[in-house]
Design a protein that fits this description.
With 245 residues, this protein is mainly alpha-helical. The protein has helices spanning 25-28, 30-57, 62-81, 122-126, 128-138, 161-177, 182-202, 226-236; strands at residues 7-11, 104-108, 142-144, 152-154.
């Protein structure tokens, strides 16, 4: 079974982490929040333009796609540094580029063609179940409006949601023990990955419906199912000895 998805969200826990730096990251990240405020306005405008381009040509203009992908990358790096993960103490770069050496990376495969029909309904009707789940995960840290394509806003703040709650517990553990509980980390990154997939789908960047699957951990690759292991096991098993004549 193919488990690939065109939106790839990866991260690595950048240990050792400071016990106290998370207390002031909201202050340190203010320059990023200011820039991202305007970038997300541009993201919404670009998505509306892409909506009409897809509707008439079945293609997402590559420069517009690259810009929106860059905004998602920048946002994920800031979210990972701050209160959506606290997974690194490295200050995020001010960049729309890929930045592969940073502990949090994101990529969206460029679609050569997109459905003209789906573009009319996927960002509001089809995505409603995903919006409900993303709201539980992100809580007040994400606001989703379905009045028009591209009207999706994401901000990072300690404003609720399951992600914020788990990251808060991780921060307390970090403060007192100097270690980030691995189980909390894997779960938090998995929920962030789900939310990013929903944003990319709602922003018309893919026709692939986000899977109802929590791919936890930095790599986000689910463990293979037993059915997938069977052929490999059979292939590796020793063959019966040939009869001796």
């Amino acid at each position: 079974m193919d488990r690939s998805y065109p939106v790839e969200v990866r991260a690595r826990l950048d240990e050792p982490l400071s016990r106290w730096l998370w207390l002031v990251k909201w202050l340190l990240a203010i320059p990023h929040y200011i820039v991202l405020f305007f970038l997300w306005i541009a993201f919404a405008v670009v998505t509306v333009i892409a909506f009409f381009a897809i509707l008439f040509t079945a293609r997402y203009p590559r420069p517009l796609f690259d810009f929106n992908r860059g905004v998602l990358r920048w946002s994920w790096r800031v979210a990972y540094y701050t209160y959506s993960a606290l997974g690194t103490d490295r200050y995020p770069p001010f960049s729309l580029a890929e930045e592969p050496d940073y502990p949090a990376t994101l990529d969206v495969a460029y679609p050569e063609r997109l459905s003209r029909g789906l573009v009319l309904v996927k960002w509001w009707l089809l995505a409603i179940p995903q919006y409900a789940i993303a709201a539980v995960f992100a809580g007040g840290a994400a606001y989703t409006a379905t009045w028009g394509p591209g009207e999706m806003w994401q901000a990072d703040a300690l404003s609720g949601g399951l992600i914020g709650l788990l990251v808060f517990f991780a921060a307390i553990a970090l403060l007192f023990t100097g270690r980030y509980p691995r189980g909390l980390y894997d779960f938090a990154v998995g929920m962030n990955r789900w939310v990013v997939r929903v944003i990319a789908y709602a922003a018309l960047m893919t026709d692939a419906y986000p899977p109802f699957r929590l791919d936890q951990g930095g790599a986000g690759v689910p463990a293979p199912a037993p059915d997938d292991l069977a052929p490999a096991s059979a292939a590796s098993a020793p063959s019966p000895a040939a009869p001796v004549s």
